[in-house]
Amino acid sequence: MKRKLLEFAFVLTLGVLVLPAVAQAGDILHIQGPSVWANFSSSQGCVETSVFANFNPYRVQFPPGSGVAQENYSVVAISQFDTCQGIQLVDAYGFGYVGADLPGGQESYIAKGLESARLKTTIPAFDQVSGNTYDVSIDLTWTAIGPPIRTNTHSHFKAPGLIVNEHFNGTNREAECSGTVDYGTGNLTPELSIGANILIVKSGRVLID
Question: How many whole angstroms separate alpha carbon 99 and alpha carbon 22?
Fold first, then answer.
């Protein structure tokens, strides 16, 4: 259970880091809405592949005067490592918005009962190894395999020039995720996820220092 709570907090922290630039030091953001995430791991010969995918149709209340935004965005991270040679082959991270007017946007959803979800979109990802940017096609489906569990988390994240303190209250369901993540070299997620959740934030408070 402790690990699940930490994963829940990690995903929400990740979401905060890609919020629009309107968020500034001293701001308090209020977040509500659903989210899904999944981790994948596979190997082929000497190459080990890890993939993280996340979809956040959050509703964000910015500080007074800054308004409310519906932040429908997706995050993907891809790592490929050659264990025989000890070489990092790919280390890519991507972020993109998912909207009804974008390819696949109308097919991306999170069910109100948190029993299922789908993410279908294409987002750019920058690979730190090659210096190239790839278009990553994502088509993933989540299916809940566990009961709804109430969560109440506090987390603290620190990075250069940024300190984030969070308090979230919500519900999450353990899930399985399957589908495809591909940037032109073939499907990187041929097996079921090794960890996945469908969750909803009932009330979230983020303080940026």
Answer: 20
